[in-house]
Design a protein that fits this description.
Chain lengths: ~110, ~110
Amino acid sequence: EADIYQTPRYLVIGTGKKITLECSQTMGHDKMYWYQQDPGMELHLIHYSYGVNSTEKGDLSSESTVSRIRTEHFPLTLESARPSHTSQYLCASSEGSGADTQYFGPGTRLTVL
Amino acid sequence: AQSVTQLGSHVSVSEGALVLLRCNYSSSVPPYLFWYVQYPNQGLQLLLKYTSAATLVKGINGFEAEFKKSETSFHLTKPSAHMSDAAEYFCAVSGGTGANNLFFGTGTRLTVIP
């Protein structure tokens, strides 16, 4: 059983609001990831981290930002939400990379009105 | 570069029938391949993965997949479908040791008919 948590599970907000999506894991994994998932589409990597104070952008451009101040915590922030940000956001972690399994959180479904 | 193609966005089978979900990959390096399952309103859960050991990989819930390099395929099968198998299934490829990214297919929604 993977121990990776995301809050909130669902969020409906108005345009222009600042939001932070929380992700935390208790497995001590160094690598963490944020994916964006739209219905009928692939999951796309938007951010990843090798460890504390390390963050990189993924292959899908995103206006969001992330931070990694603690190993277990990898929050994602949108400074000014827009309707185009409406999507499901999935957080994952892994011990290493390549063949290592990525464990996923339950996701946050974001709707921006 | 790595990519995955899942043939069939929707597959319906009768309860007790064979489940076959197709995945073809493209990779410039020896790939690691994964199948994940996603139940409604949940995250992705690993079913099985291929990491260059045995070409026939057994996973959870009675699923298995066979890596066929000559066909660049990694199809997922289960001999007998159960109602609880209804979910979305994603195939993914990783670009080898040190790679940070999983490249996902668009998913296949499996419906099981009683």
